[in-house]
Amino acid sequence: MSCLALSLTLISCGKNSLVLKLDDQARIYAAVIKRLYQDFGGGQRGPQTVYIMKSAVVSGGVPQVEANTMVLTESLQQAVISELTDTKRIYVWVSQASEIPIDDVFAGGSCKVILENIHLQKDNSVQVTASLYYGGTGGGGTTFIVEMINDTWTVTGTTGSIWMS
To answer: pLDDT tens digits for 64-93?
Structure first.
C-alpha cells in the first residue's frame, strides 16, 4: 500500500484520506522543525539562522534527484514561519543550498533543514521525515510521528532509523 500527496492538501494512504488545510500543514511542519532543532540542533545554544529548503523530498527521507521533489507554496512557507515566531531564531526559505552562506554554516551560525512531504497513517497521525545539516560534517534526521492532541499538532515520537554525524 503506497501513500500519495497531491499539492500537499489531500493526503491519502490506501482507503484513508485526510484533507489538510494550509494552517494544519504549517503547524505540522513547524512542530517537526522545532523538534528537529531540539533533537539535532543544539537547543538554545545552536545556530540562530535556520535555512529551510523550499522543495519537500517526496522519496523516502533520502534526498533524491530534482524530479522527486515538490516545491512548498509561498503561502505555506509564510504560514510555517508564522508558526515559528516563538523560537527567537531567523528562518529563511531557500531554493538551493548554494543560497546558504557557507562561511556562516561552518562557523556554527546557521544550519539547513530538509523536509519530506506529509504522509497520512491509518490511525490519522502523519509522518514527516526531516533532516538538519551543519556544513559538511554534522547533522541528523529521522521520521517524526505527528498527531492532533487537544487541537494541536504535536510530535509524539519517531519511527524508523535515526541518523547523526
So the answer is: 444 456 788 999 999 999 999 887 888 999
CB 128 within 8 A of CB 60: no
The pLDDT > 90 percentage for the chain reads 38
Q: Quote helix, strand, coil % in the chain, to nearest 5.
A: 30, 45, 30
Contact status, residue 144 vs residue 128, Cβ threshold 8 Å: yes
Cα–Cα distance measured from residue 22 to residue 36, given in angstroms and rounded to the nearest whole number: 21
Place of cell 500500500: 1
Tell me the residue length of the chain: 165
Residue pLDDT, tens place only, 116-130: 889 889 898 999 999
Domain boundaries, the chain: 3-164
Q: Is the Cβ–Cβ distance between 80 and 33 less than 8 Å?
A: yes
Contacts of 128 (CB under 8 A, 6+ apart): 28, 29, 32, 115, 116, 117, 118, 119, 143, 144, 146
